Amino acid sequence: MSTLQDHLIKATAAGGRIRAVAVRTTALADEARRRHKMAPTAAAALGKALTGTLLLAATLRKSGRLNVRVAGKGPLGGIFVDAGTDGTVRGYVGYPELDLPPRDNGQLNVGGAVGNTGFISVTYDLGRQPYTGTVSMVSGELAEDFTAYLANSEQIPSAVSLGIFVEAGEVKSAGGLLVQLMPDAGDEIAERLEESIRSMPSFTAMEKEGLSLTAILEKALAGFQVDILEEDQTVQFACHCDTRRVLDAIRVLGEAEIRDMILTDGQAEVRCHFCNDLHIVPKEQLEQLVS
């Protein structure tokens, strides 16, 4: 099992007519599991969503952030992830304590937790007016749902592979890859790529072999010349909640509710949905808000 640092690489193949991204997310997926005190099935679902969102962010041509909302109708209660082109990502699920019996093959039942009906929506914030694309869920296993989103909303033929391995309650391996066919690829390259993807092992299997991300891309794109464009962009779980943002959130509650906090508790406690950090605002700062 690989212990390399979480990172992301980008590549092209077939003279630029294929675009590919691969990412290792083991540490950040386990960080999310630890912060949210997650059961294995919930941790696997969030880990896959964090990975898929980072892959989407890596395809953006401009700097910015995107949010992915997975509103499946399963017992997990939905997933929300925020990621940036800088490699930072954060997220949470509705019921982090959810755990389901494994499937017959021993794999965690992510699809059963997420649900195979509902929708997945992606909101892009690239410095101008944000815009959102939404498509229906197809499996709840998330790799197929990200693939369907790219095909139906972005009109880009794509293949997404997401893998995660949880053992003894901890994430031991996580990551994924995204392969996209460019408009000028042609039928021959499309057919060869489809065959390569079909015969490719799962991401977790390749990770267990100890393959580097470059080797994983070369295996996924067998038969094509792979050109690495960008190596070792660090990716990490990171949240930008801080005192200013917490005070802004409290301010919108209004003067009456803030005064009630002062009289009842003498302070305010605000827990961030994304990172689960608890922010305590003392009485003096609350008084400044209402003064």
What's the total number of strands?
A: 13
Instruction: Name the overall outline.
Output: globular
Strand order of the largest sheet: 7-6-3-4-5-11
Mean pLDDT level: 92
Radius of gyration: 21 Å
Unreliable runs = none
Q: What's the CATH H-level homologous superfamily of the largest domain? A: Hsp33 domain
Helix content: 25-40%
| Count of discrete domains | 2
Q: What oligomeric state do these chains adopt?
A: single chain
Main beta sheet, described?
A: 6 strands, mixed
Determine and state the CATH class of the largest domain.
Answer: Alpha Beta
CATH topology of the largest domain: Hsp33 domain
Along the chain, the helix and strand elements come as: EEHHEEEHEEHEEHHHEEHHEEH
Strand content: 25-35%
| Alpha-carbon distance between the two ends | 57 Å
Count of helix runs: 10
Q: Tell me the structural class.
A: alpha+beta
- CATH architectural name of the largest domain: 3-Layer(bab) Sandwich
Report what the structure shows.
The protein is an alpha+beta fold and 291 residues long. It has helices at 26-36, 40-58, 110-114, 143-152, 186-199, 203-208, 213-220, 243-251, 255-264, 283-290, and strands spanning 7-13, 18-24, 65-72, 79-84, 88-93, 118-125, 131-136, 158-167, 170-181, 226-234, 236-237, 267-271, 278-282. Strand 8 and strand 9 (170-181) form a beta hairpin. Helix 1 (26-36) crosses helix 2 (40-58) and helix 9 runs antiparallel to helix 10. The strands form three sheets. It has a six-stranded mixed β-sheet with strand order 7-6-3-4-5-11, covered by helices on one side. The protein has a five-stranded antiparallel β-sheet with strand order 8-9-2-1-10, sandwiched between helices. Strands 12-13 form a two-stranded antiparallel ribbon. It contains ten helices and 13 strands. The radius of gyration is 21 Å and the shape is globular. It has two domains: 7-237, Hsp33 domain (3-Layer(bab) Sandwich), CATH 3.55.30.10; 243-290, HSP33 redox switch-like (CBS domain Like), CATH 3.90.1280. The mean pLDDT is 92. It starts with 6 loop residues before the first strand and ends with a helix.
